[in-house]
Specification:
By secondary structure, the protein is an alpha/beta fold. It has ten helices and eight strands.
């Protein structure tokens, strides 16, 4: 009986993939945590600011992807979740987070994949699209065009906030970060050295891209303006604001239809 149970467990783990946290040692020795679940075509999910990969567990998208037979890979970006949290500028410069993701895909020997980003995860994904041609389809969620400006005032505002200079606009985010014991120094550096993908770079993206955002989500610029800058892109506007759109059924079904 014990042998049969072991065989069943091995079969189950082989079928669904390994869902426990695993680690990649990245280019500078930083340990990047990730989960790898399911079998089938690969979808990489990239989380937003302050959050970690665990935030996808609060959405309908991840379980729906697994139910539809996708293999879902979810990293904790450096500085978040169970990943290491470098405390120096050198840990975030030169698109460090993008390099982590490329190395992760290399480690897993993935030849082609699809990717979904939300909020700051979309900013990381936009730059990843310019560097990794293995992405065949991508979803940029909860983001407008403003991140393409290297002097984006909102980025600078939040970089300053997590260095200690808060105001009425940023206090809520800082308080939330403190409430979940997020690393404030790392969050500051994430904003300070956030990737900035130029309009010229966006114009050279070859993958098919879906821009999706809530109808009340305008803090990061116009999603429509972003869609105009990316060839082979489409746009969907669903109900919701920035913090709740990602959890909705409409968000998940539009993405599944696109993928």
């Amino acid at each position: 009986m014990r042998g049969k149970i072991i065989i069943i467990i091995i079969f189950f783990m082989t079928y669904v993939g390994y869902c426990q946290t695993q680690y990649l040692e990245s280019f500078d020795g930083t340990q990047i945590a990730y989960t790898d679940e399911g079998r089938g075509k690969v979808v990489l999910l990239i989380h937003g600011f302050i959050n970690s990969g665990a935030s996808w567990e609060k959405t309908l998208l991840k379980p729906m992807l697994l139910k539809e037979g996708y293999r879902v890979i979810v990293p904790d970006l450096r500085g978040t979740g169970s990943s290491d949290k470098p405390q120096k500028d050198s840990g975030y410069i030169n698109d460090a987070e993008v390099r982590d993701l490329i190395l992760l895909i290399n480690k897993l020997n993935i030849k082609k994949y699809k990717a979904v980003g939300y909020s700051r995860g979309s900013i990381i994904l936009a730059e990843l699209l310019t560097q990794d041609k293995r992405i065949k389809k991508a979803v940029i969620g909860g983001m407008g065009l403003d991140f393409t400006n290297k002097d984006w005032s909102r980025r600078i505002l939040f970089a300053n906030a997590f260095r200690g200079d808060t105001n009425s606009e940023t206090k809520g985010a800082v308080d939330y970060a403190k409430s979940i014991n997020a690393d404030l120094r790392s969050l500051h550096l994430q904003q300070k050295h956030q990737p900035c993908t130029s309009l010229e770079e966006l114009s050279k993206i070859k993958a098919k891209v879906l821009i999706i955002a809530g109808d009340l989500d305008t803090d990061n610029g116009s999603p429509l303006d972003l869609q105009k800058e990316i060839p082979k892109s489409a746009i969907k506007i669903v109900n919701g604001g920035h913090n709740d759109t990602v959890k909705t059924l409409n968000f998940a079904t539009e993405i599944l239809d696109f993928l």
